[in-house]
Specification:
By secondary structure, this protein is mostly beta strands. The protein has strands at residues 3-7, 10-12, 18-25, 33-39, 46-52, 58-60, 68-73, 78-83, 92-99, 103-106, 110-114. A hairpin with a 3-residue loop joins strand 9 and strand 10 (103-106).
Length: 116
């Protein structure tokens, strides 16, 4: 099981940017798909973006396509989520997750608040 620790959340004005980081430890990620999910108050957790660790292929939810970019640094064992043109509806706790026969590994989450 991989241990995942998120960072980089905070308060940002609409239209602003944030970059989230997810540091992974505990095992190699070669066979993993790494992803970001989010959960807004009173709503279910939803998928945001994912990246295959080995090949770097990406996939995004329609709601963030063109605004968010997921990437990874193999040397640092870290996954990033660059979030641009943020909207109030992007406000949520953002979770990093690892997929290997299911989304089994989860971080504790980092709060992102988009407000003026």
């Amino acid at each position: 099981q991989a241990q995942l620790v998120e960072s980089g959340g905070g308060l940002v004005q609409p239209g602003g940017s944030l970059r989230l980081s997810c540091a992974a430890s505990g095992r190699t990620l070669n066979s993993y798909v790494m992803g970001w999910f989010r959960q807004a108050p009173g709503k279910e957790r939803e998928f945001v973006a994912q990246i295959t660790w080995s090949g770097g292929s990406t996939y995004y939810a329609d709601s963030v396509k063109g605004r968010f970019t997921i990437s990874r640094d193999i040397v640092k064992n870290t996954v990033y989520l660059q979030m641009n043109s943020l909207k109030p509806e992007d406000t949520a706790v953002y979770y990093c997750a690892g997929h290997q026969s299911g989304w089994r590994d989860w971080g504790q989450g980092t709060q992102v608040t988009v407000s003026s």
